Amino acid sequence: MLKAGAKILVPHPSEGFVGATVESAGAEIKCQADDGERLTVDAKKVAESDEKAFEGVADLTSLDVLNEATVVHTLRLRHKQQQVYSAVGDVLISVNP
Known about the structure:
Blueprint: E1 7-12, E2 16-24, E3 28-33, E4 38-42, H1 68-80, E5 85-88, E6 91-94
Antiparallel strand pairs: 1-2, 2-3, 3-4, 5-6
């Protein structure tokens, strides 16, 4: 079960997945997105992630959890940092600015 203060990735209607901090947890998770937006999300839709997903790692294979949410969030974070190249092992990913 998630605890208040935990960092999570939650689905967002326009951003795919966003980082958020849990405020309260139950069948629904009340959280605050990293941009300050308050969200209420079905607990079943919260994506498994790890702390590295919030750091913008260059090689996604270094993530302990590799799923749609961690990939989308990491690529978006790196793009915002003007780092358009990422990798998944030997595969190069380029996100055009």
